[in-house]
Amino acid sequence: MDWILVAEQALNGLQFGLMLFLLAAGLTLVFGIMDMINLAHGSLYMVGAYLAAAVAAATGSFLLAIVAALAGTAAFGMLLETVLLRRLYQRDHLSQVLATFALILILNEGVRMIWGAQPVMLNTPAVLSGPVELLPGLMYPAYRLLIIAVGLAVAGLLYLLVTRTRWGMWVRAGASNRAMATAMGVNIRWLFTAVFGFGAALCALAGSLLGPLLAVQVGMGESILILAFVVIVIGGIGSIRGALVGALLVGLVDTCSRTLLPALLRQLASPEVASNLGPALASILIYVLMAAVLFWKPQGLFPARG
Amino acid sequence: MAEQALLSVQHLVKRFGALAATDDASFEVRAGEVHALIGPNGAGKTTLIHQISGAMLSDAGTVHFGGQDLTRLGMAQRVQAGLVRSYQITSIFKRFSVLDNLVLAVQARRPGLPSWWRAALRDEAAYAQAQGLLARIGLGAQADRVAGGLAHGEQRQLEVGLALAAKPRLLLLDEPMAGMGPDESERMVALLQQLKAEGLTLLLVEHDMDAVFRLADRISTLVFGRVIASGTPDEIRAHPEVKKAYLGDEETEAAL
Amino acid sequence: MTTRTSLLHHRGQRRWIFWPLLALLAALPPLLTAIGLEFYVGVASRVLIFAIAASSLNLILGFGGLVSFGHAAFVGLGAYTVGILMDAGVASAFVAWPAAMLVSGLAAALIGAVSLRTRGVYFIMITLAFAQMFYYLMVSLKAYGGEDGLPLPARSALAGFDLKDDANFYWVALALFAAVMLGLQRLVNSPFGWLLQGAKENETRIGATGGRVFALQWQAFVLAGAIAGLAGALLANLNGLVTPHLMHWSQSGQLMVMVIIGGAGALWGGTLGAAVLLLLEELLSGYTLHWQMALGLVLLAVVLFAPRGLAGLWRRARHG
Fold first, then answer.
1. Could you tell me the domains of chain A?
2. A94 versus A75: which is more confidently predicted?
């Protein structure tokens, strides 16, 4: 096995996992604190990517695009929360699933109406378009390294926010026992809106960063949304730490298995079996992982709820 | 006396991490008696009830019922054997009528798989049993009322009714008097005395000492997961360990 | 004989509504052909097929309280069974369609055995996960077309009754739909159906009274899966093509949407929902390219303002 390939895949897995973490963190907070299943979370990721693409095309500045995407999506998210989503907190999960499913349809179509059905271009900033030599023989795209750096920075920032600030304390209190948090005087309504807006910003960050790598198109949110849900179920609902561990696990397993598994199978079985079974196994591996985790720890790895 | 023991709990242990909620608990309930389980808060009464009813499996010890070893069996099987419990927090079918509640319970109790084909509305046997239960618990007038709309005391009566639907040989009552005012408590005590007169064996977990001393033939006292005393009300009243356990609890001290 | 009523009992339509309505539905093909709208016979067949699928989901979701987000997998498995059998030379409906139900029922038995041990959002996620597994499996099986799917060279052979003819196919679908609905009505009004509804309302109490909740739910889950498989077999015939997309989670979502629009836990909930959703799609897509937006808005409105769906509105109107 070519160690360079392995190292590359591991880095890709890390990069993907960190972006998944951005989505999962927002999702797990919303789910953990507001007890709401939000299927439209992936749509916020899409909105962020589109905003970034639009601003990048208009101004030519990638940095400006990211800032605009973050601000715009956060604002949009908070608007959505106050106007619509807060009515769903008291409802059962099925109603939440369906209302947010409706939101996906609306947002997908809305984006299609504004920007058309064709994928939109979001280019890697020119300065980062080259590879970097990490180790002799190991070349890795600079842009992906940036993503990893940003991902780690956000993870660190979130850690500090949640464990060292008052805001973080409220969030943790709300995640483990909402009634108690209210009784302690935390302004729940504002907290919820803020948490939602923050989650939306994280989605936008992931969307704008991944935009150059994956296509910016209608419906891009759905596939990553499922993965995000798998991540938070594995990590434990309401736990940021769980979201990180889960995301890294899912990112690595998903990315590495896609290349390594067929390679492994080719050594063990015939090429057709490998080319057929390999991708299939790779895709379902994360679900098998989720089922396995749930089997041993039905509440996920680090459940926040008491 | 062992032959008369309907329920025999021997050396039960249940740990939650380092805490032994049930710490070698043993006692017996004789057929036909009303046996009360009392103890200060935190003694582990609920955990013990869970283990007897099958909601929780014990880490060690045995539960024998009518000569059968129930220790590893689940709740449904214990119910089929005749060991039935009612809940401290009322657990009824709030959306449906009182009669529907009882009919459901009767249908649930039937051994074997429920029919996919017969019309439940014309299940005369179930309805007859349900009507009988309705009369026994004294809620005949409320048959068609939505269960969620009943007064608290009436809901507790229904709770007992649902437990009775399961054809118990021993009825495990988890704080039947919970949350009741004096009138409602009177009604519940009368109902329990009636059940006792019918020959049903009752195991009662209760804080209301007044009711306990009126109803119980024998009492067991649970302290820190262990039964420290088992005997007649007079014996318990005089027991030094029991008095020590309740020291500081004025209401109980007064009753004792 | 008895004037008993119960919220657990779901009265079907009165005899003098049901049979005439059925006769009217049976007369639909010649009626539509007469006014030059033969195309809509195919649409009507599609509505019937999804009514069957949505009603099967309604059984476990509406009556059983089990929010399964992977029900489309069973539809897809049924469809693939028919497709694969036909590919292997077995075209008889009498073999392929029961086989479809068997395969889906078996899958439901396995998935249910694992999933029904979980509750709440974990149940939702794990049913979703299993459906995704089947989706990815079929996408990667190049032998059966992979992502592009498996075309069906012909419709299933039904002993001389030519299913290629739209009207014939419609009548077969109608007959099966009626059979499923009659069976469903029988089931939800039986002791099994009552206990299932009881378990949805208060699972602990059913268990505490000696009922075996897991057995109840598992049996319902398997039955629902098998019926969904039948719908899948019919769908494969109607589409002439079987693709992994049938199992996609958005399809499961669509089935759930049908159930809630129609009314979860109401006997005709699945049927109403399927009819409304599909006809709405037909209508809206004729008017505007952006019909998904309108659909989303309608759905949102239903969830916010008519949580018990159309059946609930109907009931509210009748009882004041």
1. 3-125+135-296 (1.10.3470)
2. A75
